[in-house]
Amino acid sequence: MDILLKPIVTEKMTDQGETLSRFGFIVSKAANKLQIKKAVEEMYGVNVVAVNTMIYAGKSKSRYTRTGIISGNTKSFKKAIVTLAEGETIDFYSNI
Questions:
Q1: Helix (H, G, I), strand (E, B), or coil: what is residue 33?
Q2: DSSP string, 48-59
Q3: End-to-end C-alpha distance for the chain, whole angstroms
Q4: 4-84 homologous superfamily
């Protein structure tokens, strides 16, 4: 099972990463906090102090077009905020 799907690279998460050593990831819905902690420590070689998770529900969206109303849903996802030990950081841009 792939636990870490992708990192969250937004202005808010970048600021928290620089000041508070907190980084965000989109994770598998079935993953628990211990699995997320282990996956981050193995992938990036850092010490994880805390993991906070939240599940976002999908939203219903609709558009008005010439042929009528098109409706659908966005996907639901699970987000994890990982707090690292003091002085440690993750560089998402090192492979570019």
A1: helix
A2: EEEEEEEEEPP-
A3: 26
A4: RRM (RNA recognition motif) domain (3.30.70.330)
CA distances to 2, 4, 21, 69 from 66, rounded to whole Å, are 41, 40, 49, 8
**Does the reported pTM lie above 0.90?**
no
Contact criterion met (CB below 8 Å) for 36 and 80: yes
Checking if the pLDDT of 1 tops 70, the result is: no
- The closest of 43, 55, 45 to 81, measured between CA atoms, is 55
Over its C-alpha atoms, the chain yields an Rg (Å, rounded) of 17
How far is residue 75's CA from residue 43's CA, in Å, rounded to a whole number?
Answer: 26
Output the average pLDDT for the chain. Answer: 94
Sign of the CA dihedral with 94 first, then 21, 55, and 44 last: positive
Rounded Cα distance between 36 and 30, Å, is: 10
Residue 73: per-residue pLDDT: 96
